[in-house]
Structure formats: structure tokens, C-alpha cells
Amino acid sequence: MRLYSLSVLYKGDSKVHLLKAAYDVSTFNFFQRSSVQEFMTFTSQLIAERSPPGSRASVKEQEYLCHVYVRNDGLAGVVIADNEYPQRVCFTLLDKVLDEFSRQVSKMDWVSGSPATISYSALDGYLSKYQV
Fold first, then answer.
1. Domain boundaries in the chain?
2. Residue 132's Cα: distance from chain center in Å?
3. Is the pTM of this model over 0.85?
């Protein structure tokens, strides 16, 4: 059971953009890592874009399960895990991360923020803590 990606995104009026993300691509071949990470970023944005506000969903994409939670305020979280990882744990993690993120990062920064400009460093810790 593995977690591969944990992303926080903002679903604004025009489109979804990534605010912060953490990846664990250590199980992949060195030469595949960047393309796997790009795939996970793209998939996270696509799933968040297609999910209505106030919804939770689990979507199977290739050999991964993508768990998405879009809050009513537009903040969204996506966890990409393998098929064996418990769904309930993923949504608990998303709840915790989005609550903490919304307390630490100003709502004004969500609209124009990017991974380079948002200062929130807890994602890597959560990703490693929730590995089974």
C-alpha cells in the first residue's frame, strides 16, 4: 500500500491551478520519475476540475486510485494511491490537510498562488507519515 501524490489545488472561476504538492516517486525507475510526476499533476488538476464543489470522489486512473475532495470554498485536495490503500484514510488525510492549509495560507493567496509562492511545507511530512 502506497501513497504517490498529495496535492492542494484551488478551483476558481476560470480553471483549477495547483497550489502545493508532494510526490513520492521513489519506487519508479529514475528515468520515469519526471514523467510520472507530470502525469500525477495533470491527473490531479483534471479530476479536481471535473468534481463539483462540496464533493468527494474516488476515480480509478490506470493502476492508481485518485481520491478527490473539493470544498465549497474552492479549495481542493487530491491523493493518488495504489488500489489497496484504504479510501477512508485518504479522505481523513485530505480533511486534515485542507483544514490546516486554509488556516495557514490566506484565502487571498489561493487565487493567484503557485507551488513557488505558497509557503506550506507540511505536505511532504504527511505523505511520508501516511505511508503504510
1. 3-130
2. 18
3. yes
Chain segment 76-118, per-residue pLDDT in tens: 999 999 999 999 999 999 999 999 999 999 999 999 999 999 9
Q: Does domain 3-130 have CATH number 3.40.630.30?
A: no
Cα distances (angstroms) measured from residue 102 to each of 14, 47, 75, 106, 118 = 21, 20, 8, 7, 12
Task: Note the pLDDT tens digit of each residue in 34-52.
Answer: 999 999 999 999 999 999 9
DSSP 43: H
CB atoms closer than 10 angstroms to residue 31: 7
Query: What is the residue whose three cell numbers read 504538492?
Result: 21
Cα angle 88, 93, 97; round to 5: 150
